[in-house]
Design a protein that fits this description.
This protein has 103 residues and is of the alpha+beta class. It is built from three helices and five strands, in the order αββαββαβ. A hairpin with a 2-residue loop joins strand 1 (22-24) and strand 2 (27-33).
């Protein structure tokens, strides 16, 4: 099954299920804040594992106590697809385990 870009309306509807996530410039993004660097780094490591499972990868930015996640689907011209929402949803599931809170 081919992956297709989502319309802006589909993206906005799906974002309602992912509080804290935003959409701009053909990307989904969110920043998480942690108690310290070990928690942030642990979150990055777990996201990397999920990305390998899904064979779909985001851009991650690791700071002292922050992790930024930005995702779109390169194979459809850098647009947002259902794959991006699947990855974002999986990240949301693990975030509480690492003590993440929205920036």
């Amino acid at each position: 099954m081919a992956v297709e870009p989502l319309t802006d309306q589909e993206i906005q509807r799906r974002l309602e299920q992912l509080p804290g996530w935003s959409f701009a410039e053909d990307r989904l993004f969110r920043t998480y804040v942690f108690k310290g660097h070990p928690q942030a780094a642990g979150m990055v490591a777990e996201i990397a594992t999920i990305q390998e499972e899904l064979d779909h990868h985001s851009d991650l930015t690791l700071g002292y106590n922050k992790v930024g996640v930005t995702v779109n689907t390169h194979s459809v011209g850098g647009k947002v697809t259902a794959l991006d929402f699947e990855l974002a949803g999986r990240i949301e599931e693990i975030a509480p385990q690492h003590g993440a809170r929205a920036d």
